[in-house]
Structure formats: structure tokens, C-alpha cells
């Protein structure tokens, strides 16, 4: 039996969602519901995932969708306290820096210091 919980805490400048359990296709609807109903426009969303022991591609896809949504609304996503397999998944897919970096991106998706966050410098797109 998988005990999956999603806890939401609202703060003036950010929302914190803490997740515990296995984040997969069967448990994802609970996280989706929390992120759909919370008004996030312009605020930071911190996803605290220290209690997540497993994440599949549906969980990763939702994190990437959520990041795009927040950037479009002037907010930002910060995934924190990844452990074990979920951290390995983000490293394997080269999304770890993209989702865990506390820096704020420019509206066009570029990192303020240049380049696209989450993409290693040697793989950055060239300006023409």
C-alpha cells in the first residue's frame, strides 16, 4: 500500500507543497489537483520532495509542465530536497539543474547570466 500525501502551505511570497510517497501515474492526480486549484500567478512554488521515494516519467512531465506554467505567469518553480531515485531521474534526464536551481530565469527562458538554465554550457544553443 502506497501512502501518498500532498500538503499545501500558503505564504505571502510563495506556496510550499510537500509530497510524500511514490509519485507515479496512479498518485499524480492528487498533486495535479493541488497545483491546478492554487492560484500561483507571480508567486514562487516550492515543491518539497524529501518524502518522495520514487518518481516515474508522469511525475517528471508534470514538474516540467508546472515550471512552464509558472514562468508564463511570472512565477517560478523550485523543487527541493530530492532523494534517491527521484534525484537520479532528474540527473539522468538532465533536468535536475532546471528544476532545482533557485535562480530566476528571464521571460524568454534564458538564465540572467546567459544560456538556458538546466542545459550544460557545452550543450547551450548558439546565438546567430
TrEMBL record:
STAS domain ranges (all copies): 4-93
InterPro entries for the chain: STAS_dom (IPR002645), STAS_dom_sf (IPR036513)
UniProt cross-references to CDD domains, sorted A to Z: STAS_anti-anti-sigma_factors
Chain positions covered by the region annotation Disordered: 100-128
Protein name from the UniProt record: STAS domain-containing protein
Amino acid at each position: 500500500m502506497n501512502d501518498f500525501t500532498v500538503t499545501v502551505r500558503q505564504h505571502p511570497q510563495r506556496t510550499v507543497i510537500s509530497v510524500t510517497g511514490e509519485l507515479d501515474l496512479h498518485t499524480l492526480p492528487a498533486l495535479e489537483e493541488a497545483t491546478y486549484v492554487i492560484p500561483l500567478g507571480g508567486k514562487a512554488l516550492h515543491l518539497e520532495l524529501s518524502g518522495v521515494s520514487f518518481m516515474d516519467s508522469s511525475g517528471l512531465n508534470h514538474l516540467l509542465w508546472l515550471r512552464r506554467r509558472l514562468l508564463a505567469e511570472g512565477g517560478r518553480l523550485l523543487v527541493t530536497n530530492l532523494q534517491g531515485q527521484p534525484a537520479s531521474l532528474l540527473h539522468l534526464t538532465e533536468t535536475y539543474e532546471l528544476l532545482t536551481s533557485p535562480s530566476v530565469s528571464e521571460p524568454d527562458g534564458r538564465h540572467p547570466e546567459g544560456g538556458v538554465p538546466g542545459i550544460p554550457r557545452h550543450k547551450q544553443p548558439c546565438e546567430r
